[in-house]
Design a protein that fits this description.
heterodimer; A: alpha/beta; six-stranded mixed sheet; B: Phosphorylase Kinase, domain 1; Transferase(Phosphotransferase), domain 1; Rossmann fold; globular
Amino acid sequence: MLLAVFSDIHGNRQAFEACLKLARAKGAERFALLGDFVGYGADPEWVVDTAMQLVAEGAIAVRGNHDEAVNSTTESMNNEAQIAIEWTRGRLDVAQRRFLAELPMLVDEKERLYVHSEASSPQRWTYVRSTTDAAKSLIATPAHVTFCGHVHRPALYSMSVTAKMTSLVPKTDVSVPLLRGRQWLAVLGSVGQPRDGDPSAAFVLFDTVSCQITYCRAPYDVATAASRIRENGLPHWLADRLSQGR
Amino acid sequence: MPKPLVKSGAVIDGYTIGECVHAGGMATLWTVTHPGIDVPLLMKIPRVSEGEDPAAIVSFEMEMMILPRLAGPHVPACFGTGDFAHQAYVVIERIAGTTLYKRLPDLPLPYDEARQLVAKIATALADLHRQNVIHHDIKPSSIMFRESGEAVLIDYGLSHHNHLPDLLQEEFRLPYGTAPYMAPERLLGVRDDPRSDLFSLGVLLYFFTTGERPFGEGETLRAMRRRLWRDPHPPRKLRADYPPWLQEVVLRCLEIDPAWRYPTVSQLAFDLAHPDQVKLTARSERLKRDSLSVAWRRRFNLGAVQPRATADVAAQIASSPILAVALDTAEGAPELNEALRITTERILATLPSARLACVNVLKLNRIAVDKTLDEQGSNKHIDRMVALRHWAAPLKLDESRLTVHVLEAVDPATALLEFAEMNSVDHLIIGARQGSFRRTLLGSVSAKVASEAACTVTVVRPPRMATAKPGAGVVWG
């Protein structure tokens, strides 16, 4: 079965639409959403409604730090993120906010684990930026593959039975076999706010039978997404960075 | 880990196990058959039981990832892989014959035989590098030859694939490989530089032409580290009749700093195919190693010479292409030759590691017997070579980057296509003959080359002629 995994959509309707379309065209049969549905982008309502619809149809979804911040004021964020979250809070209705509040911190399917930040202590929202960070997450779970997001830059880590780590910056559209006998941490790039220098929207396809993972990119209408941000009075940098992918 | 299920007569995933043909330290090899496959097959099974070297598992994992992605005549075809969860294996094509290891008693080989042998290996290695793989264990026992002549590289357990996780990167504190052939930068932990394979091939060429290994057989880390600062004895010291061009090639492959070696294996293959065109430098003349003071300076300045590996195998290869420019020095219009030079100059400007082959076709008559000497009694072949060098002089290329070739052929287009194919030319630059009677009569050389070549072809026209004659630029000359 081909699984499509999306992370850090951040209210970017154009990017999420493009990813869903491309994933379906490539034959994706099941979806997993790794959180941060809102924040930064100007279409949180559409993104949350779409996520609710996908979950109703069987998709996996977990909570991100921006989703949590919609319902609580304790989460500390940088200034622009804070402005965007306060704006978002006013846009979502009760049902949409409840959907975000009730998302689980992680979903464990035994073979595969889905979490927004990392698996060792998901509520601390730690970024996986190195093999050391990746090792902490991999030690915390027996799952063969862990999918996470949060850093907005794609990476693929593995740990052998003797706890030796490898890391890779995956190349777009090149499938990598996630060998059994070692554990893997797939860090996804962001759908709605890529930060690896490539402005196109990032997602992942995973074949659950052959265990091949493919990091994909979907070009999307960046100009519209950016002008929606400006039209709604959100900080301009949030619009500018989309075309730079930073 | 489940116990190995392998024994003669057993069936694994449709493969019936035959006999064990090899039992090595890391893996065993079995003949197998499969109802749907009618080529001879081998199943490779790793040793994974208690007390075995953990390297066996990791290197087998690398082979399981890399082999199914490789294609072409220079690698064994892969038919299937099995997981460690059940029974780990790879099934590959069984290549007839033995490895090059069997030739060791015959060393040293005659120079020309060694040249042809290593040229074939270089062609195979260039093809592997184009597939984003660095072999990292080039040595006689990793090399076989097909009956059709192509070299085949086997054993990918230590290899690096630029698009896949490198499972060996952090697995071992010490570099893993075959000591006599290992490039110095490998001792510093560099695994992503394709020029490490070029070094190993240089060791092989040295060994096959002198009968001696340039860095001995030392397996200790101390013995291996010497190659970070100590250069090998020049082959001419061992064999007085060693050809200078061959020493030039060998010592260039064995440079300590990868930046001083050939930029790509394709460029090495090119020199091996054209020994008379190898630009001789001080390397070719040397009879002694560097003085001790030079070696010691290297030894204690190691930090300064540590190689910086290129991050991307494909990018490095792409920046060091082989360009060929087809010139008609005898009858070509001067404006066209000038336009060709300007275009060539622009392309070379972006590619500091590219090399340029200037090619001219000496057209033979179909029926009449050709004379080597022209009416004035001078040698046509040599005249053309001189003319090509004269054309290239304003490009101010380092001589090691420039070669000239005069091909003798009845059909120029076919000759150029063959040259491009044989020499792995990446980009061919050719002029269009403008609206001539000859073109109408004889057909267009550039059109045939552009449509049939496997590489990129740029067709050049002089700037003014396209506007001077309306429509003249539509058809390639």
